[in-house]
UniProtKB/TrEMBL annotation, chain A:
Lineage top rank: taxon: Bacteria
MacB-like periplasmic core domain: residues covered: 23-238
UniProt record similarity statement: Belongs to the ABC-4 integral membrane protein family.
Localization (cell): Cell membrane
Keywords associated with the record: Cell membrane, Membrane, Transmembrane, Transmembrane helix
TM stretches of this protein: 270-298, 310-329, 335-356, 368-389
Source species of the chain: Murinocardiopsis flavida
PANTHER family referenced in this protein's UniProt entry, alphabetically: ABC TRANSPORTER PERMEASE YTRF, MEMBRANE COMPONENT OF TRANSPORTER-RELATED
GO cellular component: plasma membrane
ABC3 transporter permease C-terminal domain segment(s): 278-395
Protein name per UniProt: Putative ABC transport system permease protein
GO MF annotation list: transmembrane transporter activity
Membrane topology (UniProt): Multi-pass membrane protein
Main location: membrane
TrEMBL record, chain B:
Protein name: Putative ABC transport system ATP-binding protein
Region Disordered, residue ranges: 1-55
Keyword Thylakoid set for record: no
An MF annotation (GO) of this entry: transmembrane transporter activity
Domain (ABC transporter) ranges: 58-278
Low complexity bias (residue ranges): 1-45
Signal peptide segment: none
Species for this entry: Murinocardiopsis flavida
One Pfam family hit: ABC_tran
Keywords: ATP-binding, Nucleotide-binding, Transport
Keyword Transmembrane helix tagged: no
SMART domains according to UniProt: AAA
Length: 402, 278
């Protein structure tokens, strides 16, 4: 059997080399199908990574809840520290205040228009994906800073310029800001200038102008264990302890999951399945092409195959020769498709690079190569079996008489 | 017809020794598997005298074969019985449609008989499984076809290599053997030529080199000179006879050509599916 296998491979490789035209003709359908499959897997992979990056940058990693504790009907938030302790006790792995500040910004004497400031804790870096263009994210030392500390986005950093001085203030009381980092613009910024302002003693008047505790409440970003994450259950736990830190009614407390990664992945999965189905249909068409060419060539090659048998090829050896030729043809087609895809993805990646986060590279992933070449080989195998079977059915004598 | 018949004496010198001695068992080198040094016949300029008593390589008894046409079985061969010894050259003659090629196909294990006994090289091949028949065919039998049956898109060397590839002969070894065989049939300068670049005679010489590549015990030639001119026919026949004399191979030639039949040790005539000597 080993002898038949080895001789089958050798003669099949020689046959594929010798029948270049047939090989190229057979390649076309498989090349298109495999190319489509590789591009779909690549697109799915890029899409998934982009979706993950987008979701984690703008909403949070899995699982992130937005918790709003806010009451306009007369209740008051009395103990912010107790609230934050309960946020952790209820199951949070990381907690950061996440509240829009009313503070305004100016550069020199010129106010920054359409800018918004979000008050956060350093822990937000454990909740969201922070992609820094330069500098760093907040750390513990920043909470002791005498000046408010900010991380700005690229849009705002551009406006500040090399030696511009950013100030932040409310009602004309301006404080000079220490900018420690610049985050990449995210899709959520919409081209505006934005900044994260670290909650710290130096920024307290900007965060809660009315005093140490925002009596009407505030908002938080909370990261929970994605395994079994349940925002409703989390809210219920907060509600049961709400009397420790507020006189809010339970309707004033909300918690909902905001990371869209799962939903996007679900959409991408369905999209990939749909496109993958189309690619499989294309691949099947290509496979039928190889099958057809295989059947035609087996008919044309009855004499050649009969000669092999007359010279000592066993049925198994002949089967290996014909199937291997089909597999060789298909894998060659797969490699051609892969080269096309590498080129196309390289060009496409260069064109869209400016619109993607820097941590989302556009490349052909390993699984696309495996899927592409694997499906090419499988298509060749399937397409080779029928012609091989037909070749075996032909008697040696009638084959030689062709 | 004995070996020292006038037909053998008429053969060109150096192609077939006109000895009266019947050939005996093949020397060990004749049956040595590939991987051993090249057979002496491929390199020795002069054939050695043919040794001792001839032993049967092939024996058929009561072999018969029919084909089904429109539900009706037409018997082509009836009760064929004969034996062929090692080193013997036998011509099978008969009219067209008499069953010569069918018999050759049975002897070459390309087809299966409907009944009778067929012993080849000590093995009863009647009812042998297909892969065993294929193996035996590849290892012990060489074919020379009237239509050559060369692989069209392969070079002469590649064509000669095919039986050796199927036989698991290592690459370098089979290349060397193929080159040497092609040189021995006068095609050393056409190693890289493909069949369509060769004349009919050259193609048949490539086919002959291919048939000899596994040093077969039996060579079956179906009208080997049918498509060739006189000079090429002479060359092919000389090579076949030399293989019998030097290597002890049994050679069975199906032919219509009396000149070819005359060079065999004996003839088997097929008349309406029955064999008879002479």
């Amino acid at each position: 059997m080993l002898r038949s296998l080895v001789s089958g491979f050798i003669l099949a490789a020689a046959g594929s080399r010798a029948n270049v035209t047939r090989t190229i003709l057979s390649c076309a359908g498989i090349t298109i199908g495999v190319g489509a499959l590789i591009l779909i897997v690549t697109g799915g992979d890029v899409g998934e990574r982009f979706a993950k990056s987008f979701a984690e940058s703008n909403a949070g990693v899995a699982a992130t809840y937005t918790v709003d504790v806010y009451d306009e009907s007369g209740g008051t938030l009395e103990d912010l520290d107790a609230l934050e302790a309960d946020l952790r006790r209820a199951g949070a792995q990381a907690v950061s205040i996440n509240s829009m500040s009313e503070a305004q910004m100016r550069i020199g004497e010129e106010e920054v228009e359409h800018a918004y400031t979000t008050v956060v804790d350093a822990e937000l870096g454990d909740i969201r994906r922070i992609t820094l263009a330069s500098g760093r994210w907040f750390d513990d030392s920043d909470t002791h800073s005498l000046a408010p500390v900010m991380v700005v986005n690229e849009g705002l950093a551009k406006q500040i310029g090399g030696d511009g001085r950013l100030q932040v203030g409310i009602e004309g009381q301006w404080k000079t800001v220490r900018v420690v980092g610049v985050v990449e613009d995210s899709a959520m910024d919409g081209g505006s200038a934005s900044a994260y302002l670290l909650r710290a003693p130096a920024s307290a008047p900007l965060v809660f102008p009315d005093g140490a505790v925002p009596s009407t409440g505030t908002g938080f970003s909370v990261r929970a264990d994605p395994e079994g994450a349940d925002a409703d259950a989390y809210r219920e736990r907060l509600v049961t302890s709400a009397s420790r830190w507020s006189s809010f009614d339970e309707d004033s407390i909300s918690a909902y999951r905001i990371d869209p990664g799962d939903e996007i992945n679900t959409v991408l999965t369905y999209l990939s399945l749909g496109l993958g189905g189309i690619a499989l249909i294309t691949l099947s068409t290509g496979m039928l092409g190889v099958l057809n060419v295989g059947l035609v060539t087996v008919r044309e090659r009855r004499r050649e195959l009969a000669t092999y048998r007359a010279l000592g090829a066993t049925s198994f050896g002949l089967f290996i020769i014909v199937v291997t030729e089909a597999v060789v043809v298909s894998v060659v087609a797969g490699v051609v498709a892969l080269l096309f895809c590498y080129t196309a993805v390289g060009i496409g990646g260069a064109l869209v690079a400016d619109y993607l986060p820097s941590d989302v590279g556009v490349y052909v992933p390993a699984q696309a190569v495996l899927v592409g070449l694997g499906s090419a080989a499988l298509a060749g195998l399937l397409a080779g079996v029928i012609p091989a079977w037909r070749a075996l059915r032909t008697s040696v004598v009638s084959g030689l008489r062709e | 017809m004995p070996l020292n018949s006038p037909r053998h004496a008429a053969a060109p010198a150096g192609t077939r020794p006109a000895t009266g001695a019947a050939p005996g068992p093949l020397p060990a080198a004749h049956t040595a598997p590939h991987g051993a040094p090249l057979p002496a016949a491929h390199t020795a300029p002069h054939p050695a005298p043919h040794p001792a008593p001839r032993q049967p390589l092939l024996r058929v008894e009561g072999l018969h074969k029919g084909f089904s046409v429109d539900g009706e079985t037409i018997r082509v061969l009836h009760e064929c019985s004969f034996a062929v010894g090692r080193g013997e050259v036998v011509a099978i003659v008969g009219q067209s449609g008499s069953g010569k090629s069918t018999l050759l196909n049975l002897l070459g294990l390309l087809d299966e008989a409907d009944g009778g006994t067929h012993v080849f090289d000590g093995v009863d091949v009647t009812g042998l499984r297909e892969h065993r028949r294929a193996r035996l065919r590849g290892d012990r039998i060489g074919f020379v076809f009237q239509q050559f049956h060369l692989l069209e898109r392969r070079t002469a060397v590649a064509n000669v290599c095919v039986p050796m590839v199927l036989g698991g002969v290592p690459l370098l070894r089979r290349r060397a053997v193929a080159r040497e065989l092609l040189e021995s049939v006068g095609l050393g300068h056409r190693l890289g030529s493909k069949p369509h670049q060769l004349s009919g005679g050259e193609q048949q010489r490539v086919a002959l080199a291919r048939a000899l590549s596994r040093d077969p015990a039996l060579i079956l030639a179906d009208e080997p000179t049918g498509a060739l001119d006189a000079e090429s026919s002479e060359l092919i026949m000389n090579q076949l006879l030399r293989q019998a004399s030097d290597r002890g191979a049994a050679v069975i030639v199906v032919t219509h050509d009396p000149a070819v039949a005359a060079r065999a040790d004996r003839s088997i005539t097929i008349v309406e599916g029955y064999t008879r000597d002479g």
